[in-house]
Design brief:
By secondary structure, this protein is mainly alpha-helical. Helix content is 68%, strand content 0%. The termini are far apart.
Length: 118
């Protein structure tokens, strides 16, 4: 019977009986760690932005935008990038204004990217 090697979310230069690896780099692992840290920062800033937007909301449209930011926050916590982008598009330009005003640069950039302004 042959060997059975099962891998999940690991970096491996070589796997299997007698396998060898030389001069390997694990950039994907570093990139994933950086991505995780960036998502944590985004979640923090989106929470701050959602609170600020709720406090400043003066119309039903503002409430919808604030809810979109709250939904984007939940999606970011779950790592659902596509949903984050969709909700940030809904939040729109008012969200950018509030984000810039309170200094949430990561959230500002994410919203601008989502709606095609950068």
């Amino acid at each position: 019977m042959g060997d059975d090697f099962r891998n999940s979310n690991i970096a491996a230069g070589a796997i299997g009986s007698g396998a060898q690896a030389f001069n390997t780099k694990y950039d994907a692992v570093k990139q994933e760690a950086n991505s995780s840290a960036a998502y944590e920062s985004l979640v923090f800033e989106l929470q701050k932005l959602g609170d600020a937007m709720r406090a400043e909301a003066q119309s039903p449209e503002h409430e919808i935008a604030a809810e979109a930011i709250e939904n984007a926050t939940l999606a970011a916590k779950e790592g659902k990038e596509g949903y984050v982008t969709a909700y940030l598009k809904i939040a729109g330009t008012w969200a950018i204004g509030v984000a810039e005003k309170i200094g949430t640069t990561i959230a500002t950039a994410a919203i601008k990217t989502a709606i095609g302004l950068s």
